[in-house]
Amino acid sequence: MNELMVILGWLGVFAPVGLGAIGSAIGVTIAGQAAIGAMLETDSGYGRFVGVAAIPSSTVIYGIVVMFSLQRTITPENGAGLFGIGILTGIALAYASVWQGKACASAIAASKSKPEIFGLSLAPAAIVEGFAVFTFVFALVLAGNIKG
Amino acid sequence: MIPRTERYVMLMASLPSIRLLGEKALPINPARLTERMKLLEPEDRDELMTIASILSWNRIDTGDDDAAYVARAERILSAIRSATLREAALERLEIRTLIAALRRRHAGEEAPAAGTVWGIGRHVETIRRNWTQPDLGMARFYRWVGPAREKLEAGDSVGLERLILDVTWQAAARHEFGHEFDFEAVVFYLMRWQLADRWARYDADAAAIRFAELLDAALPPMASLEVAA
After folding, report:
1. Is A108 in contact with B13 (CB distance < 8 Å)?
2. Average pLDDT in the B149-166 region?
3. Per the CB < 8 Å rule, is B6 touching A113?
4. How far is residue B110's CA from residue B131's CA, in Å, rounded to a whole number?
């Protein structure tokens, strides 16, 4: 049982990075494909499209910071806490990345024919980013309460 | 591991937006559109061709009689994998059935005999039973039946065409909701492109006829010109 708790603890420590990276990879790929498609149809603004496509990569950075905040000597006592915070943070970050990628793809597809809505079209992606930030901040707060 | 709903992000992002009454020239020409469609997966391309074979006028086999066409359309409808596309294709054929009924009645035809295969969809029998009603018993399903009949009876062919395209466009937009980057989105884009293309051509033809009429009205007959000379 003690060994299982330690294993779960390790899973929890790395989950924010692992799941965050998976989510970011999918999100950036979705938005990146939209950016490539938009480049076929437009004659300028390529850098702007690529910049938007990179937005979902922020969640893996949050995951790295959360991982460092969870990193400590893993014991049977703190394994469950690390697992709970780490796994749920990782899932939330991954989910936010994928959906943010979709929001960015829509923003790129819409703003290629109507450049004046570029800024406004990013609002949904920014709101999703806000949810990822909530997860990030409160994971850091709770990580400080875990003994180890 | 890209989700199926995002399968055609690049393709859809590479297509310009289309409006039914947009610019005189379509924002993407047929050659370029065909080139872009090469990004479709082979199985989706096959499905697209199958759907086009019952919806696209230039792919429908005009040698088929009504019964043969209906049988083929029903077979193809039941084979369409996407429930959204199946429903959208069925509704489009139902709209055509209703328009065909209005035209046939306007031409003085009697109601089709019971048991005759003459249309597609859920309202065929209702239309047949209500043949003598002004709206064919369809006003509660389609509010545009009344205006369509009025335009048909007034001989306003341009107005009727515009109305049909509008109704078809709105039906496609309704079914398209929630599909942005998947195969369904591609099919709906092509449907809308076809409608815009049809309007652009119709508009050009109607303008040419109108221009000729104005010329005839404004210029004196050729004979009087010769006399004057």
Report:
1. yes
2. 91
3. no
4. 8
| Partner-chain residue, chosen from B3, B9, B36, that has the shortest CB–CB distance to A34 | B9
How open is the CA angle B144-B197-B74, to the nearest 5 degrees? 60
- State whether residue A53 sits within 8 Å of chain B by CB: no
Amino acid at the residue A24: S
Contact partners, residue B185, CB within 8 Å, separation at least 6: B8, B12, B176, B179
For residues B114 and B105, the answer to whether their CB atoms sit within 8 Å is: no
Give the other-Cβ count within 10 Å of B101's Cβ. 24
C-alpha separations of A53 from A16, A97, A104, B191 in Å: 21, 11, 6, 29
Q: How far apart are CA A106 and CA B5, in angstroms?
A: 13
Q: Does A33 touch chain B (CB under 8 A)?
A: yes
Per-residue model confidence (pLDDT) at position B23: 59
Cβ distance of A105 and B13 shorter than 8 Å: yes
pLDDT grade, residue B211 (50/70/90)?
low
d(CA A13, CA A72): 9
Question: Which residues in chain A have their CB less than 8 angstroms from residue B16's CB?
Answer: 41, 113
Q: Does A36 touch chain B (CB under 8 A)?
A: yes
Question: CB of B189 within 8 Å of any CB in chain A?
Answer: no
Q: Could you tell me if A132 and A58 are in contact, meaning their C-beta atoms sit under 8 angstroms apart? A: yes
* Contact B35/A at CB under 8 A: no
The secondary structure of residue B123, as a DSSP letter, is: T
Summarised one tens digit per residue, pLDDT across range B134-148 is 999 998 889 999 999
CB proximity list for B133: less than 8 A, separation 6 or greater: none
Domains, chain A, in order of start with CATH, read 2-143 (1.20.120.610)
